[in-house]
């Protein structure tokens, strides 16, 4: 399967458009929101009520997650295929343009969509995201790590992986969350499947995508980068992204780590809503 050069067109045919699970709620201009690895539409449960009065939320379960399928073929998970299916979803909903919000892995998908079809994206919100790894050697090493983890997910099973994943350093700040919040996150992750997560990692993992660092300067849509101050790794990545993006604001949220919308939902939504209204005011 061949893909376009990502400059406005992908040659892949929409393959999963009718199988993607989509929820639409809210009132206002459309906001397509994309969850992170091990997430789903339920990822937004804490923030949807705060965002719904300001936007029509188009929540999607990416392949291998939530109530969307987990195909066997790895090409299904490639970023270019995800972009093609999401653009077809917008077409089906007769949405010429949307604002786009992606968290972590969903932010990497959002960046691919914005790079492939910038004319479709009125505003880009990236929460704890990255444009991938710049160096081929980094990508190769990450692919090897992700492949090994994917195999382990399938060998050790879902419960093992969910507990392992919650324990990684990147999510250390979540230890401060109420136990009920952590339990709800664990329950959400357990509603996925070991196969779906493993396949997503093999097809859409950080090491499997191309680097989008060189594409950032041509993304002229208003872009909001959100990171948690306690997530030093992604604060640093997003500071570098902000240097390359031409129309960008980087907001660092206090007392939050990687999953800002879970750790500081009110602050997260205030920043998102202000940014969305700013963009609308400029267009009128
Ligand atoms: C562990 C690293 O990378 C992973 C961390 C975050 C991303 C993600 O989507 C996590 C969502 C969540 O569980 O809340 C994930 C991704 O982008 O696919 C990364 O693999 C790291 O140290 O970079």
TrEMBL record:
It catalyses: 5-enolpyruvoyl-6-hydroxy-2-succinyl-cyclohex-3-ene-1-carboxylate = (1R,6R)-6-hydroxy-2-succinyl-cyclohexa-2,4-diene-1-carboxylate + pyruvate. GO terms for molecular function: 2-succinyl-6-hydroxy-2,4-cyclohexadiene-1-carboxylate synthase activity. Keywords: Lyase, Menaquinone biosynthesis. Gene3D superfamilies: alpha/beta hydrolase. Residues 29-265 form the AB hydrolase-1 domain. Its EC number is 4.2.99.20. Pathway: Quinol/quinone metabolism; menaquinone biosynthesis; Quinol/quinone metabolism; 1,4-dihydroxy-2-naphthoate biosynthesis; 1,4-dihydroxy-2-naphthoate from chorismate: step 3/7. InterPro entries: AB_hydrolase_1, AB_hydrolase_fold, Epox_hydrolase-like, SHCHC_synthase_MenH. It comes from the Bacteria. HAMAP family: MenH. Belongs to the AB hydrolase superfamily. MenH family. Monomer. Catalyzes a proton abstraction reaction that results in 2,5-elimination of pyruvate from 2-succinyl-5-enolpyruvyl-6-hydroxy-3-cyclohexene-1-carboxylate (SEPHCHC) and the formation of 2-succinyl-6-hydroxy-2,4-cyclohexadiene-1-carboxylate (SHCHC). This is Putative 2-succinyl-6-hydroxy-2,4-cyclohexadiene-1-carboxylate synthase. It comes from Candidatus Chloroploca mongolica.
